[in-house]
Amino acid sequence: MLTQFPGFIDVHVHLRDPGQTQKEDFFTGTAAALAGGFTTVLDMPNNAVPVTTAERLAEKIASAKAKTVCDIGFYFGSLGDNIDQFPLIHDKVFGIKLYLNHTTGNFLINGDILDKVFRAWVYPQPILTHSEEDTIGDVVKAVRAYGKRTHVCHVSSKKELEPIIQAKEEGLPITCGVCPHHLFLTEDDVAHLGSYGRMKPSLKSKADQDFLWEHLRYVDTIESDHAPHTKEEKDSDTPPFGVPGLETTLPLLFMAEKEGRIGREDILTKLYDNPKRIFSLPTDPDTKVEIDLDEEFEITNEGLHTKCGWTPFAGMKGKGRVKRVILRGKTVFENGNVLMEAGSGRIVRCRS
Ligand code: DOR
Ligand code: ZN
């Protein structure tokens, strides 16, 4: 039996286009989104050439226009030296992303720059942070000082989530997301995954993982942080951080639902309602995904739409096969096939 859901929203993906299309491009990345049950994705700015100018954003949007098969929106990046660009781009993006810890790309900022950007970002869209255990305190301080809406990405541990819970209880305008890899894998999995289990933030202990599950009510979004890298890159002496996730998030969550670890309502809240509200996303009543929840399967590296062709969840059990995706009334994906022409997805803009 098919169950119908609204088109799910992944607020955190890296589709690598332009600049690193050996890893992924807007066609393969958005095809992976449809195959995974997502009709809207929001793409991060840490491209090979960082998206920190209006011109680069325009180039990125042009590339997406030609290739996307689902709806897609963008974030802007900042190292604190492009504040003059903010008035030019604010209405074209869903937020500004700041990296307080090292990760893929050269994007690192310190606490002083954080303050500078918090003062300069005067728009309704949130500030998003990559802030791990050692930097989350700076972010909470900045939210308290400037009162700007802030979304903390990929919270992975007790040390990261606890200060956010406190900030929420204080009434600060802070939201946060967790990734499936932090919910379903731990540092013990690195033994067999090797570089395929390395991402930022890193996999944590079972105790940290339990803390995330036990405090899921404080978590606003489940976001894949879909970060494809080629097998060659992962097998090299300097493997980049990141794992793909668009096609595995829902099967893992529906399996967790079966096991009584998460409710159906929570899945809908964290992958549809909250993303829509936090990022003021336009949605459409005729955009739907149909999923066969009776289907249970082993997740494998075969048959994925992502160009990178692997998943860190291979061998794990998934539940729920996306059978059909309907975008604004039109069937765009059915039984594993993308039925849309490259470029027929929509570039979405923030409603606020
Ligand atoms: O593991 C990660 N990979 N974490 C990030 O924050 C960035 C991402 C990437 O771009 O590869
Ligand atoms: Zn990311």
Fold topology:
Blueprint: E1 2-6, E2 8-13, H1 26-35, E3 38-43, H2 54-67, E4 71-74, E5 76-77, H3 86-89, E6 96-99, H4 111-120, E7 127-130, H5 136-146, E8 150-152, H6 158-169, E9 174-178, H7 180-184, H8 190-193, H9 206-214, E10 221-222, H10 231-235, H11 249-258, H12 264-278, E11 288-298, E12 317-327, E13 330-334, E14 337-338
Helix pairs in contact: 4-5, 5-6
The structure holds (4S)-2,6-dioxohexahydropyrimidine-4-carboxylic acid and zinc ion (ZN).
Number of helices: 12
CATH topology: TIM Barrel
Strand residue percentage? 15-25%
Radius of gyration (CA) equals 19 Å
Nutshell version of this structure?
This protein has 352 residues and is of the alpha/beta class. The chain has helices at 26-35, 54-67, 86-89, 111-120, 136-146, 158-169, 180-184, 190-193, 206-214, 231-235, 249-258, 264-278; strands at residues 2-6, 8-13, 38-43, 71-74, 76-77, 96-99, 127-130, 150-152, 174-178, 221-222, 288-298, 317-327, 330-334, 337-338.
Task: Please give a structural write-up.
With 352 residues, the protein is of the alpha/beta class. It has a single domain (2-338), classed as Alpha-Beta Barrel (TIM Barrel), CATH 3.20.20. 31% of the residues lie in helices and 20% in strands. The chain has helices spanning 26-35, 54-67, 86-89, 111-120, 136-146, 158-169, 180-184, 190-193, 206-214, 231-235, 249-258, 264-278; strands at 2-6, 8-13, 38-43, 71-74, 76-77, 96-99, 127-130, 150-152, 174-178, 221-222, 288-298, 317-327, 330-334, 337-338. The strands form three sheets. A six-stranded parallel β-sheet has the order 5-6-7-8-9-10. Strand 12 (317-327) and strand 13 (330-334) form a beta hairpin. Helix 4 packs parallel to helix 5 (136-146) and helix 5 (136-146) runs parallel beside helix 6 (158-169). It starts with a strand and ends in a 14-residue tail after the last strand. The structure holds (4S)-2,6-dioxohexahydropyrimidine-4-carboxylic acid and zinc ion. (4S)-2,6-dioxohexahydropyrimidine-4-carboxylic acid binds next to loops. Zinc ion binds at residues 12, 14, 44, 225, 227.
